UniProtKB/TrEMBL annotation:
Coiled coil: none annotated. It comes from Vitis vinifera (Grape). The chain crosses the membrane at residues 20-38, 44-62, 115-141, 212-229, 235-257, 277-294, 300-317. Keywords: Cell membrane, Membrane, Symport, Transmembrane, Transmembrane helix, Transport. It is a multi-pass membrane protein. Belongs to the amino acid-polyamine-organocation (APC) superfamily. Polyamine:cation symporter (PHS) (TC 2.A.3.12) family. Its main location: membrane. It is found in: Cell membrane. This is Putative polyamine transporter. InterPro entries: AA/rel_permease1 (IPR002293), RMV1-like (IPR044566). GO terms for cellular component: plasma membrane. One of its GO terms (molecular function) is polyamine transmembrane transporter activity. It comes from the Eukaryota.
Amino acid sequence: MDYLEQLFTVFSSGLPRRLALLGFTLTFSFLNYMGLVIVGYTAVVLGVISLFPFILMSFIAIPKIHPHRWVSLGQKGVKKDWNLYFNTLFWNLNFWDSVSTLAGEVEKPQKTFPLALFCAVIFTCVAYLIPLFAITGAVSVDQSEWESGFFANAAAIVSGKWLKVWIEIGAVLSSIGLFEAQLSSCVYQLVGMADLGLLPRFFAIRSKWFDTPWVGILLSTAITIGVSYMDFSNIVSSANFLYSLGMLLEFASYLWLRRKQPTLKRPYRVPMRLPGLIIMCLIPSGFLIVIMAIATKIVYLISGLVTVFGIGWYYLMKFCKKKKWFKFSHEVQQYEQE
């Protein structure tokens, strides 16, 4: 919305902004309802269109680059916000594990995913670094102006208003692609939990028209609408905190399974022994702990409430399963018996 409101100031605040958030969320959620194939191709097209103005801006900025600006430590007297820096960096470079929730919809994920992730990581880092180096080297402005949406202003300084508008449009399209991808992973995570018996079976119900899990899409959309009116920095920090907790649990589960079930059939097996896997997991775990340690009080509060709710929901589902109030899949019980 930060870029969109620069194009249309009417969306900067008040009722128009709220209606825009609601309308966009519902529209793009319906796109997810139409299926992963459409979402995938849409994301690729949006990615190409949104990246092109940034690439063009980087080339235009080359003659104006002063390399000494890259080693600048910032303006004197300006406080460095490390909390915002690490959370923004983490927000832009995390959620790689979310792709695992879509493995059931992909042919031969054990071959496709490693290659796709390898290419995506390199491509993502390059897509961030090239425009960032270009603008920091070519534009000299007050440090306080570097805030959300500044790339559009930088484009205007480098080339003119036409590129600024193009950057704003590209940023909006990029956000749409990000929303679609994130919603898909959340939805199919709910489906996986239903298949494992952690949620009632109706969470895995699919549409007769598009074969998509419409219950999960509806629930995820409702949650998205609910949090969309929060302050963006709190959303980012809270999401990072909760993601860090989840990743630590994933690492612990991963190592525990490798130790307890070394012969368990897996779609993909990391070709390393347990000591190497521990070292591999310790490095990102350290960064996750840093992200959690620098969180603000409001983030601790939000994350704590969500965590308590999640734990309470788990025991509520166990109670519902015991009372047979809902139908559950029995895959978890079968696995435990094996």
